[in-house]
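Sequence, structure tokens reproduced for absentees:
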Amino acid sequence: MRRVVVVAIVGLVCALYLADLTGMGIFSADEPRYADIGRAMSGGGDWVTPRLWGQPWFEKPALLYWMIAAGFRLGLGPDLAPRLPMALLSLAFLAFFWWRLRIEWGARVAWFSAGMLATSAGWLAYSHIAVTDLPLAAFFSAALLLTLPWMARGDRTLLPASAACLGLATLAKGLVPLALFLPVFALAGRRILDWLRPLPILAFSVVALPWYILCTIRNGSVFPRVLFLEQTFGRFRSTALQHGQPVWFYIPVLLLLLYPWFPLMIFPGCKPSLPLRDPRVRMLAAVVVFGFVLFSAMLNKLPGYLLPLLPAAFTLLGIAVAGAKRPALAAIAPLALIGALPAIARIAPGAFAHGLRSTGIPWQAAVPGIVIAAVIGTLLARALPRSAFVLATAIAGIGFLWFQFAVFPKLDASASARPLWRADHPRCAPPMRRAELYGLYYYSGGEIPACAVPDPGDAR
């Protein structure tokens, strides 16, 4: 029976991440540009210099583009080639996440934490679009997980593998993972010298440095200037990148990314505090707090910046729930929030296309679903206290799977250029939002001129 349950859970997670990947067209202002660069790498044979619509483009490192190019080389279509590598990487990380947590804290924490991460809105959303946040989060978090034995027991065996993962994370998003790793070094004290031994340094250098060196040799100083000065440090001090947000921006964003599990941050059935005497717990907590403060201090903010913090955050939540006196109670509030998915499905297309402020929130429509789901959660907690939390994650997975099939076609119609391209194959770009314009460029294979605007005087 246990094997059947495990197979069913694995099948549900695979369906959640692999089903309907092409249900909506290339989406947002970033995905069409990243996808086009990967396609150009695949077709042109230059895997060193990223090129957007024929011109060098140095805003991000190359790892994501290589993954997309591999999808095109495998003969996948324009929608699947960018997204399937993201979904497969996400699934591979979830399996790795469960495995490492099982070794460190046991099966109970592993199931709780991996189940919550797999059915969280943030991890799911960024596993379905080809942007740099998911590769960064997966490899940075893998580096953290491989550091746990060293942090707990001084075991240096996995430090070279951790350094290699950190190198891959720098190929995903430059200096960001190194900055997020600073709490690990700070807590290490004198043991930081373990990272300066030949094997960790060699592992990091072999993985991370060759592309940076080759790209600098081929393109000169413009490459490090754009990537590091403008795109990395510039995000702290300038709003020229058009992503300026208030300092409190990430408070609601974090709750959204953790949905539906964020009530567990104040779950009263947990023990009064995490076991902070455990150096592994202190390390993970320090990474989450430091990362949240760091990103909040930046002038430019995007929701995906917090994604690398989610695995560590869900590990802490899993440890807290597993140590609770009545962990079954932890299932009630998240299940109640899953009951709001039908109402969220109604507003999601308009919110993505025009912004949440322009979309009314149907509170009255959400209440019945929340109440019904809360009742189901309460019944599960009473009838099946040992299995209630795992069942809650399964129900959350089923809810999100329904959500994808219900919402993706609407998002395709309201926030993607794919329907326009399929219908008309336009030779010029009509007035549209930047995200849709870039999508039209992607599907057309390059930049196309803007459509001429008729002069009102011509009609006289």
Summary: Residues 2-444 form one domain. The chain has one domain: 2-444. The beta strands are 51-52, 55-56.
